[in-house]
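Posting this for the archive.
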Amino acid sequence: MDELGKQFLKSVVPLVDKGQYSASLIYVDNLVDGIIKAGTSDAASGQTYQLRDDWDVTWKQYLTDLSALFGKKPTGSLPYFLAWTIATVAEKLTTPLGIRPPATRLAIAIMGRDNDVDTSKARKELGWQTTMSYPEAMKQIEDWVKGTRLN
């Protein structure tokens, strides 16, 4: 979040494909709970589980809520292909100079496509579930942002 926070302070963050896709988020407390359940369950030995919170949150909503913590809002939207091209060029120009690119192909791939996962196996076999709501998680993030210097 520290680097993302600095990015929000430095510039605008556009949406990719209007931010229409599920952000498929997981709050750290919910993730840790899933990891502990998998690590302490005999039935989980040798198994793979996918975890994500059951929030119905798009990238548009998440970036709008997150950027509001910095007094900003997402500005505009780029089509996936254009965003991918910009990120590719940015990475090729800045990486050799040791500069963090303003956009990466990984970020574009995450925000510009549906990356949702099925958590039913973790729910059924581990008894895992989302325990912190989206509003509670955003409040925790807001408290962290207010208590952290990002400059």
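The mean pLDDT is 89. The chain is about 50% helix and 5% strand.
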